[in-house]
Amino acid sequence: MSDDTLRARLDLSYAQAIERVTAALKEQGFGVLTEIDVQATLKQKLGADFRKYTILGACNPPLAHQALTTELEIGLLLPCNVIVYEDDGGSVISIADPIAMLQLADNPSLESVATEARTRLQRVIAALSR
């Protein structure tokens, strides 16, 4: 991907990585609203085999409220997507950079929300990388 992604590689099993990222998100005020098991979905819908891969929809309610009251259509970019997938005996966690995502809205009033979200998500990655 690009530099618009916050990423960590963990020498943990996939299940342990899901637990760690969920806990790290919680520490930064994010809850997981949705959890999509991509492997199971592709198997069920297409009969296709795929690696263990989950998309977590993470939300920080105060930041989401601030963003939505600033720009109603920003809901198209919410929640923050966090992916966790199995890779060569470990796991990878990737998070889209909120500053890059909110640039799509082209509303300078969202800059403070994006900056705060990015700071918190960078802390998530830092906590995972320890």
Can you summarize this structure?
The chain has one domain: TT1751-like domain (TATA-Binding Protein, 2-Layer Sandwich). The chain contains 5 helices and 5 strands.
Keywords:
alpha+beta, TATA-Binding Protein, 5-stranded antiparallel sheet, 5 helices, 5 strands, 44% helix, globular
Task: Write up what this structure looks like.
The relative contact order is 0.23. This protein has a single domain (5-129), classed as TATA-Binding Protein. The chain has a 5-stranded antiparallel sheet. The chain is built from 5 helices and 5 strands. It has helices at residues 14-27, 38-46, 61-70, 98-102, 111-129, and strands at 5-10, 31-37, 53-59, 80-87, 90-96.
Strand order of the largest sheet: 1-5-4-3-2
Query: What is the radius of gyration?
Result: 15 Å
Overall structural domain count = 1
Number of E-type strands: 5
Structural class designation: alpha+beta
- CATH top level label: Alpha Beta
Residue-averaged pLDDT, rounded? Answer: 94
Q: How far apart are the first and last residues' alpha carbons, in Å?
A: 23 Å
Supply the CATH architecture: 2-Layer Sandwich
CATH superfamily: TT1751-like domain
Helix-strand string: EHEHEHEEHH
Give me the secondary-structure topology.
Elements: E1 5-10, H1 14-27, E2 31-37, H2 38-46, E3 53-59, H3 61-70, E4 80-87, E5 90-96, H4 98-102, H5 111-129
Antiparallel strand pairs: 1-5, 2-3, 3-4, 4-5
Helix pairs in contact: 1-5
